[in-house]
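Narrative summary of target 7.
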Amino acid sequence: MFGKRKIGIALSGGAARGLAHIGVLQVLDEIGVNISAVSGCSMGAIVGAVYSLGLDLKEIEDYIKNTDWKNFLLFSVLALSRAGIVNDYKVEEVFTKFFGNKTFDDCKKQFCCVAVDIVKGNKVVIKSGSIKNAVRASISVPGIFPPVYTDDGIFVDGGVMEPLPTEAIASLDCNFIIASSISFERDNLNDSKRGVIDSKKSASDMKKMTIHSILDRSMNLVQAQLSKSYLERAQIVIEPKIGDFGFFDFAKGQQIIEAGRKAAIKKIPEIKKKLRLR
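Modeled conformation, tokenized:
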């Protein structure tokens, strides 16, 4: 009567915080949710590409756990580029490791990712060509990573316009959308350890904010506001609470992934009911 249900999942951006999507996808796989389409933005594009290609999410989890992120980020920042504070040499190295020369035709699940062409001023949903190049465009946070230059335009992070790609996934063959959208609420870590702003803090405390925490807070506010309208397009919303973690907190990757698992586990009753899973 209703036709076959084709489930799509939209994965938001959020830099290191977007690693929570790994935990979400692991739980969905464990309870038997058959995802047929994936859309991603920024870090969601990286996780979504790995998942769509059929690569083991444990492989990327192990990479995160075993990488010396202090030296990784230090090297990247020391090798400054003109168009961003992070040089993408190391990023290119990681993308080559996971994506190589694979294209969208190699995906086991439908996949798309979102970028923004700052020349034409429009959002671009990328569904063909090189996975590595598409994801690289989608993660190009303005001022952080250099943009991607092509004959067709200059591309930056899709989160500038669509931080949660529930609209983009409509271009794929799916009729039921799950959104994994990171929430900037805090869970149980000490805020002071994270450099996170409490709105009740005094003016003197706020003057002590670092460049990192100012950037972090600004991007959190932008993404939270922009994501609201896109959340309404999803039938199920999973919101990992990652307010305790920062933009570059890759060294806390295991904890961030666990936050994703925790959020997805809380949603299992709703997921099973709406998808009629046993």
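Residues 189-202 have pLDDT under 50 and may be disordered.
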